[in-house]
Amino acid sequence: MYMSSALILHIPLKYYYNFFVEQKYGFNKRTKLVFFKDNLYIVLITTLLLVISFDFLVWLIDLRLFSEYYWISAFAIFAVFGMIITYAIFPVFIKILIGSTVPLQEVDIDAYTAIEQLYQKCGFNTKKVLMSLRSKRSTHANAFVMDMFGVKQVVLYDNLLQLAGIDTNANKVKQLQNQDLKEQTDDRSLQTDKQDGRNNELNQSRNEKLVIKDPKVSGIEKIVAVLAHEIGHQKYWHTYKLLVFVLVAVFFLFFIFSQLKKTDFFAIIFGFIGEIGEKIEYNQEFVNLFGIFVAIKSHLSLIMWIINILQRRLENQADQYAVKLGYGQALGNFLISMSKENLSDLNPDPLYI
Questions:
Q1: Organism's domain of life (predicted)?
Q2: Per the domain annotation, does 282 fall within a domain?
Q3: What pLDDT sits at residue 190?
């Protein structure tokens, strides 16, 4: 409930950020209804996963497998359980949040062919290249490659493709044209008015197409360059390295938990043991787990700073992989354009990044 309460209390701040800050600069595309639906979904799913995980963890600890080394067996089983949630269950929920997806070959066959050629060159075999209709929620552009335990797929945001000069509205024009043909069979007395309105929509769509054809950044090569960077993460096993980093950190936390068994540190802090030794009945494992969770939460900024330093090095390594493939110039230009489009800080403080 602690985490759920924190998420709920954070919603007003997210609302202000989305509908005042983001909207002021033209980034927010979500309606208020979609905003509250997304956040309700996040709170419910996060609460469900946390309750299941926490109860499972307490149950594991109560089993006391391998006697005094129970915390090692609990860590091993919980690590497997966590990976199943992270890499098998959680991506299903993420798909709902990133919006509807369509196969890229149905949007632009040339872009799909270029990406497929890159994958053949890098030995990254997947036919699942998707375009996410993310522009319905935000104008921020992004892309990601998933390659974990045999699951491979690529997701490109439609606004990223538009920034690169790829027309993602081609199907819209076809639908309008088909609708025009259907309307020709309607009452002749209304045909002129309907055709005029339909022509206006077609002209608007064509104008959008012309804008896309004269973009701030053009070329399928730049999309390929971004994906070359993403493949660099897979080639250098960055996802697995981060996983090992997390597992080592979790192992350390389990060790700390095993040592807390010998003390009443958190029980005193939370008031289960008074100043003169009076006690309120409590579950020591539960109190210690909750205490560790609160301690991590309170030091999250420091932890994220360390993780960001590690991630920055991995990002630079992925950039170098794209450079080796000959996409250095294209990647650099596109990243600068994306940063400007997203109003990112091009000269951030070293401590911040």
A1: Eukaryota
A2: no
A3: 40
Instruction: Give the residue from 205, 149, 154 showing the smallest Cα distance to 176.
Output: 205
Mean pLDDT on 306-326: 92
351, 225, 151, 87 alpha-carbon torsion, rounded to 10°: 20
Query: Which two three-digit tokens encode residue 211?
Result: 């804008």
Assess if residue 352 is contained within a domain. Answer: no
Helix axes 32-63, 90-98, angle to 10 degrees: 170
Of 181, 213, 245, the last residue of a domain is 213
Cross-strand pairs, 152:
147
The structure tokens listed for 253 are: 């936390």
Quick: pLDDT tens for 152-164. Answer: 788 888 888 888 8
SS3 state of residue 154: strand
Contacts for 13-20: CB closer than 8 Å, 24+ residues apart: 14/39
pTM confidence score: 0.74
Contact assessment for residue 154 and residue 115, using Cβ atoms and an 8 Å cutoff: yes
Please say if the pLDDT value at position 294 is more than 70. Answer: yes
Residue 220 lies in a domain: no
Q: Domain count of the chain?
A: 2
Domain encompassing residue 60: 1-98
